[in-house]
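Predict structure. Chain length: 152.
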Amino acid sequence: HHRNKLVARHFEIRRDRDLSPRNKYQKLSSATMAKSSGRCPPSLIGGGRIIEGSQFEATLLHALDGQGMILSSEPNAVEVFSSAMKMAQFSDACGVLALEQRRCLLLAAIGATAESMPNNQTLISLMNAGLLVTIKSWLAEIMDGKLGGGDL
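Prediction complete.
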C-alpha cells in the first residue's frame, strides 16, 4: 500500500514537472490569483464571492502569461483579453456583483502589467485600441452609482 502511494506521488510530481509554467498557472482559479496578487479588495473577492469555472475566468486565465497577473505577450493575447473585457460590460446575462468582480480582475491585470512590464506589447496594443476609453466609461458608471463603489 505504501509503495503504491510513493508511485502515485512520483507520477504526480512528474506530471507537474512536465507542465509548462503557463499550464501550471491555468490550474489556478481567478480567486486564488486575485488573492495572491493583493490587487483586488477583499470585499470583492472574499468569502467565496468569485464564481469559479466561468467562461470569463477561463478567458482571463488564457490572457495571462502564468507569471502572476501579467498579460501574456502571445500573438492572440490582445484578442483574448479584449474578449474578457467585453464580458465585463453591462448585460442581462450576469449580475452586478459578477461585473464588479470581472472589472476588478481585469484592472488588476492591467495594473500589474503596467507596473512590472510597461513595454508589454499586449498592453501597448490594448492602449492603442482604446482601453482607456472603456476604463473611463467604467469610472463614469461608478461615479453615477450604477456599478461598483470605492473598492472598485
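Summary: Residues 1-26 have pLDDT under 50 and may be disordered.
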